[in-house]
Amino acid sequence: MKKIIFLAVIATVLAAPVFAQSGSIFPKGEVSTVNNHTGTVWLTELNKADSLIDCNIATATFAPGAKLDWHIHPAGQILIITDGTGYYQEKGKAIQVVHKGDVIKCVPGVTHWHGAAPNSALTYIAVSTNGAKNKTQWLQRVTDAEYSKASN
Ligand code: MN
How many Å lie between the centroid of ligand 1 and the Cα of residue 25? Predict the structure, then answer.
């Protein structure tokens, strides 16, 4: 009996890192075919804004090195990082390295981009209120020179 308990403990300890690295609790979703990013991005819609609750919620996973173009959310967005390591940058400011567990406020009207670090995937839940007036304005690509300024 002691041997069985011992084996169960060992199995749990060995399995823990596997679960810890398994990422989001939500499905990874479909590969994005929209031309507003570089690299592979998977998207899953979790809630669509409607007349009762005006809030869009989606989860996005970025392959290492994948990133969105510069953009603006007219009514803002909150990013809840659920897995991996990535970058968040507002125009004119330094790149912030973001990790699982971080919550990032993308303030209304501020030009910014976000994506994965070069050596890590990134998954987050994006919460966008005021769906009707919060249509993202897509701007220029993030250049290699801009992306490479990060130090993680
Ligand atoms: Mn954004």
Answer: 21
The CA 114 to ligand 1 mean position distance, Å, reads: 6
pLDDT tens for 101-126 read 999 999 999 999 999 999 999 999 99
Interval between CA 2 and ligand 1 midpoint (Å) = 53
Q: Domain of 121: which CATH number? A: 2.60.120.10
1: CA distance to ligand 1 center in Å?
A: 54
> If you measure from the C-alpha of residue 103 to the centroid of ligand 1, how many angstroms do you get, rounded to a whole number?
13
Q: Do 61 and 41 form a contact (C-beta atoms < 8 A)?
A: yes
CA dist 55 to 19, 41, 108, 124, 146, Å? 30, 22, 15, 16, 31
What size, in residues, is the chain? 152
Q: Can you give the residue range of the structural domain that contains 125?
A: 27-151
Q: How far is the CA of 6 from the centre of ligand 1 (A)?
A: 47
φ, ψ of residue 18 in degrees (nearest 5): -65, -45
pTM: 0.82
Q: What angle do CA 37, 99, 95 make, to 5 degrees?
A: 60
